[in-house]
């Protein structure tokens, strides 16, 4: 055969597969990325955007680890917004609107420039499994390609079935065929699989929209970036717009419910709770007279527009009639209708925290195959699966991020310990250590770890050290610098803050809730001079301000995290007999036997395992 034997084979070139392939190759593993279509590597199958609430933190974490998603997003961004600015910094979440074509192009080019990464256009139809270990793949073209580990990132393609009204088409997304054979093979090996569904809205001709009656949604005045690297700064931005449905739209949609695959039983898979179809929304929230639609351009130059919020699998004629009843869309022209896609996934409780399957060694799953939804969640799993697939080939311990270390750690721990019965989406509320897991400090949290394992570059580490040095020196300067009452009088008056009776350290002024470092620099010359001397960037200033203002909360949360983290060091033998402990509740015995947690901390997060059950285990384990 024309193929070599590889360290790592990655199946699928979506967000999960791309990050997995890049991570494995950059760690030094010979890697093969197999995709059915080289022309759609890194395709944004759904909305043309990256980040958002909690998802933006994940993109920053991927970047801090040395992944590509943040860089690709910055290079293809057409708008940047920091969401949740009105709330505390733990909730701030970056989001970009992206040029769909440039996004995919940048992914392709970055992967092509990655050493030790090869490509093969083909469909994988079978995994090579010998003595309980995955040792390669077989493809539709008849190739047998061997490897030391395999990462499967099949997205929505495993037995994918698309629905538009009463019509059904095999496929993972519009114009691309489904993958058959892998699910059946793994089920024969004892895996538990199920069905999920996701949907997408119509794409329309922007020239046919009356933007004059829509609300304009501008990007941030001073846009930031996802990546901590030197990526392009947005100098101009494209606006998004907001439209609204109405009761007439809802009535027109209901006319098609008898032909809806969601309501007539054709779709068996469960859809995402937090991104429902428009027909689902008007049924579940029948008391609402209107729903928001976000009108998102697909790029700088294209006229194609994504109607976010109008995801649907209703018949095409119903989609057209209903959308044309939305103000501003009276004359809208469709490029393609919305549709739903149903696909297989494997219950993620069948995985270790490394994302290696428990049943078959050296086989890793990442992305929607694990029951998640979203580019960011998929990419996060991809980079961790790629890291651990590569490390497994050298018999190195896996890298597992903790819940107090990264949103990625929360994501994987939730999946592996709790599982999911609906498409899993990340939210800030899922993380118990939100103030530690901010979007501004992802590099400080993760780059040293990534550099230590050989993924983050020396340059990345040097950039982090320089940033931390600048911030530390500036904080020390603020602790020493005294501000006289007359220097701060104008600032404090404008902000409605109590005036100074005597000189006060600048750092104390910054701890006041309504005083920001930018305000202080604007009104106090000595503070402006200090910040200029230390050459702090706007991002540096933001990080420093958060650290100063929230120091007490950060320290308290870190103390709680440290206390619980001690349970991470209490290991549970793999062959531990839970049924022999009569003091355990029957539910705990059942769940623990099924999940086989590695540590007491993992056991503590399994639904049905109580504090008293943990106490019993501690005693039995001699702790």
Low-confidence blocks of residues: none
How is the biggest beta sheet arranged?
7 strands, mixed
**Number of DSSP strands?**
22
User: What structural category arises from helix and sheet content?
Assistant: alpha+beta
CATH topology of the largest domain: FAD/NAD(P)-binding domain
Strand fraction band? 15-25%
Reading off the top of the CATH hierarchy, the class of the largest domain is best stated as: Alpha Beta
- Rounded Rg: 26 Å
Number of helices: 21
Mean pLDDT across every amino acid position = 92
State the CATH superfamily name of the largest domain.
FAD/NAD(P)-binding domain
CATH architecture of the largest domain: 3-Layer(bba) Sandwich
Question: Overall 3D geometry?
Answer: globular
Q: Tally the structural domains.
A: 4
Distance between the termini: 55 Å
Describe this structure in words.
Helix content is 36%, strand content 18%. The protein folds into four domains: 6-161 and 345-453, FAD/NAD(P)-binding domain (3-Layer(bba) Sandwich); 203-342, Elongation Factor Tu (Ef-tu), domain 3 (Beta Barrel); 458-551, Arc Repressor Mutant, subunit A (Orthogonal Bundle), CATH 1.10.10.1800; 570-620, GidA associated domain, C-terminal subdomain (DNA polymerase, domain 1, Orthogonal Bundle). The chain is globular, with a radius of gyration of 26 Å. A hairpin with a 6-residue loop joins strand 16 (292-297) and strand 17 (304-308). The longest helix has 23 residues, at 458-480. The model has no long low-confidence stretch (mean pLDDT 92). With 623 residues, the chain is an alpha+beta fold. The strands form five sheets. Strands 1, 2, 6, 7, 8, 9 and 20 form a seven-stranded mixed β-sheet that branches. A six-stranded antiparallel β-sheet has the order 14-15-16-17-13-18, with no helix packed on it. The protein has a four-stranded antiparallel β-sheet with strand order 11-10-19-12, with no helix packed on it. The N and C termini lie far apart (55 Å).
């Amino acid at each position: 055969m024309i193929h070599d034997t590889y360290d790592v084979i990655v199946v699928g070139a979506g967000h999960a597969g791309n990050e997995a392939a890049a991570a494995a190759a950059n760690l030094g593993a010979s890697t093969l990325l197999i995709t059915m279509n080289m022309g759609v590597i890194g395709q944004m199958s759904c909305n043309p955007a990256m980040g958002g609430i909690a998802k933006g933190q994940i993109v920053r974490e991927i970047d801090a680890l040395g992944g590509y998603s943040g860089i690709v997003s910055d290079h293809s961004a057409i708008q940047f917004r920091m969401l949740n600015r009105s709330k505390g910094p733990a909730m701030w979440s970056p989001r970009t609107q992206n040029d769909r074509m440039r996004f995919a192009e940048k992914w392709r080019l970055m992967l092509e420039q990655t050493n030790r990464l090869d490509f093969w256009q083909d469909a994988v139809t079978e995994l090579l499994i010998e003595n309980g270990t995955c040792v390669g793949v077989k493809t539709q073209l008849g190739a047998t390609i061997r490897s030391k580990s395999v990462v499967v990132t099949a997205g929505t393609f495993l037995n994918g079935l698309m629905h538009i009204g009463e019509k059904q088409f095999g496929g993972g997304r519009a114009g691309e065929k489904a993958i058959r054979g892998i699910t059946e093979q793994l089920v024969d090996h004892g895996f538990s699989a199920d069905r999920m569904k996701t949907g997408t809205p119509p794409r329309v001709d922007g020239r046919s929209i009356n933007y004059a009656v829509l609300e304009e949604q501008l990007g941030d005045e001073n846009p930031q970036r996802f990546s901590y690297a030197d990526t392009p700064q947005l100098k101009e931005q494209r606006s998004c717009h907001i439209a609204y449905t109405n009761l007439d739209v809802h009535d027109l949609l209901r006319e098609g419910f008898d032909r809806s695959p969601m309501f007539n039983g054709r779709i068996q898979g469960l859809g995402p709770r937090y991104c429902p179809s428009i027909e689902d929304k008007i049924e579940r929230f029948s008391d609402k007279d209107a729903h928001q639609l976000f009108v998102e351009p697909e790029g700088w130059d294209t006229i194609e527009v994504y109607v976010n919020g109008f995801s649907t699998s209703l018949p095409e004629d119903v989609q057209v009639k209903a959308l044309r009843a939305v103000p501003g869309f009276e004359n809208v022209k469709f490029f393609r209708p919305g549709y739903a896609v149903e696909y297989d996934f494997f219950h993620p409780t069948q995985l270790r925290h490394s994302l290696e399957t428990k049943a078959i060694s050296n086989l890793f799953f990442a992305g929607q195959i694990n029951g998640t939804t979203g580019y960011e969640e998929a990419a996060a799993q991809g980079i961790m699966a790629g890291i651990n697939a590569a490390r497994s080939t050298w018999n190195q311990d896996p890298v597992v991020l903790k819940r107090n270390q990264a949103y990625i750690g929360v994501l994987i721990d939730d999946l592996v310990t709790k599982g999911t019965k609906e498409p899993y989406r990340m939210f800030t509320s899922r993380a118990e250590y939100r103030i530690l897991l901010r979007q501004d400090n992802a590099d400080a949290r993760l780059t040293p770890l990534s550099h230590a394992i050989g993924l983050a570059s020396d340059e990345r580490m040097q950039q982090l050290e320089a940033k931390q040095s600048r911030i530390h020196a500036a904080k020390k300067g603020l602790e020493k610098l005294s501000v006289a009452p007359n220097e701060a009088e104008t600032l404090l008056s404008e902000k409605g803050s109590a005036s100074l009776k005597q000189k006060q350290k600048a750092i104390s002024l910054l701890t006041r809730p309504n005083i920001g470092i930018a305000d202080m620099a604007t009104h106090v010359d000595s503070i402006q001079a200090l910040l200029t001397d230390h050459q702090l960037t706007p991002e540096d200033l933001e990080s420093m301000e958060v650290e100063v203002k929230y120091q007490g909360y950060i320290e308290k949360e870190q103390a709680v995290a440290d206390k619980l983290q001690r349970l991470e060091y209490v290991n549970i033998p793999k062959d531990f007999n839970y049924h022999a402990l009569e003091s355990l509740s029957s539910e705990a015995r059942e769940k623990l036997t099924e999940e086989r947690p590695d540590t007491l901390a993992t056991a503590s997060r399994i639904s049905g395992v109580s504090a008293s059950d943990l106490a019993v285990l501690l005693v039995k384990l001699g702790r």
